[in-house]
Amino acid sequence: MATTTLSPLSHRNALIGFGLAALAAIGFSTKAILVKLAYYDPVDALSLLALRMLFSAPFFLIVALTHVGRNNATRLHGKDYLAVLVLGLLGYYLSSLFDFIGLQYISAGMERLILFLYPTFVVLISALFLGKAFGRKEIIAMLLSYAGIGVVFLDELNVQSEHLLMGAGFVFASTLTYAAYLIGAGETIARIGASRFTAYAMLVACVATVLQFLLTHPPQALLLPIRVYRLSLVMAVLSTVLPVFMLSAAIRLIGSSRTSLIGMIGPVSTLFMAGYFLGEQLTVRQIVGAALVMAGVLSLTLK
Q1: Using CA atoms, how far apart are residues 9 and 130, in angstroms rounded to an integer?
Q2: Domain of 253?
Q3: b/e for 93-118, b at 16 or more Cβ within 10 A?
Q4: To the nearest 10°, the Cα dihedral for 149, 151, 152, 158?
Q5: What is the pLDDT of residue 281?
Q6: Total count of domains within the chain
Q7: pLDDT at residue 249 tops 90
Q8: Rounded mean pLDDT of 142-156?
Q9: Average pLDDT over residues 160-180
Q10: Cα–Cα separations (whole angstroms), residue 19 to 26, 155, 157, 234, 267
């Protein structure tokens, strides 16, 4: 049987792709830790999200401007602008807002595990509204994933019961809106390009967040402790801008399937970081629950 070997350049690109995918997963995971650390100070979810968006916006604006006037850039039509507007509001504005609110009430580890359920939401939405196949493999994946969340939820219930359901509900809503965004984004990303779409959609989310803040808060609400500003800046750079573009680069180098598999280190890294930085105890139930969730998601991801 003939065997194929990777060229040195392909091997190097694969290693770079795997490294970028791992760094992106860890970067996204640190967001929950930074949000929880910021909540030690008197700041609400919308103010914190507004700071994150304000610090992120210049980076995405620069990327958006680099695409202006390019000869090879796909010309945008009305439906493209509408898609960017709707998907930006759905995937980056609403999803982020629900997530930040939920993190006020549940642990960082549980938040990351719930968010990691987004492939199961994609399967459910696709089966219910798009007529996609839903068979035994999908049912087993759902049972494993939600059994894992149930185990972690029981563990959280022993530690904190007040507002636990509300917090988990908001994070579930965040996961649902993100899954809907993923389903709708594929065609638009293929048409206008990943980095261009991401920059435009993030700018839509930034404007929406700042507008909501201005309509619901006085300007002096942003007069916060310097520590909150530092955490927000780190969140914008390390947990928003860099992971977004590292993820796009990883997908280009090693493909979306391998990138998603490497992304499974995200919940694990969150659990350990939550223990180290936040003092959240890593229990046997959490480990078992995380293993069940990842097994369920893995069964959906693997061909």
Answers
A1: 40
A2: 25-68+76-301
A3: bbbbbbbbbbbbbbbbbbbbbbbbbb
A4: 140
A5: 85
A6: 1
A7: no
A8: 90
A9: 89
A10: 11, 33, 36, 21, 17
Q: Which range has the worst mean pLDDT, 87-101, 127-141, 228-242?
A: 127-141
In a domain, 3, yes or no: no
Residue 151 lies in a domain: yes
Candidate from 82-91, 125-134, 207-216 with smallest mean pLDDT = 125-134
Residue 14 belongs to some domain of the structure: no
Cα(142)–Cα(296) distance, integer angstroms? 6
Q: How high does pLDDT run on average in the chain?
A: 89
pLDDT of residue 6: 54
In a domain, 244, yes or no: yes
Work out the pLDDT band at 1, boundaries 50, 70, 90: very low
The answer to whether residue 45 scores a pLDDT higher than 90 is yes
Q: Rounded CA gap, 161 and 240, in Å?
A: 31
- Write the DSSP string, the chain: -------HHHHHHHHHHHHHHHHHHHHHHHHHHHHHHHTTSS--HHHHHHHHHHHHHHHHHHHHHHTTT-TTSPPP-HHHHHHHHHHHIIIIIIHHHHHHHHTTTS-HHHHHHHHTTHHHHHHHHHHHHS-----HHHHHHHHHHHHHHHHHHHHHHHH--TTHHHHHHHHHHHHHHHHHHHHHHHHHHHHH-HHHHHHHHHHHHHHHHHHHHHHHS-GGGG---HHHHHHHHHHHIIIIIHHHHHHHHHHHHH-HHHHHHHTTHHHHHHHHHIIIII-----HHHHHHHHHHHHHHHHHH--
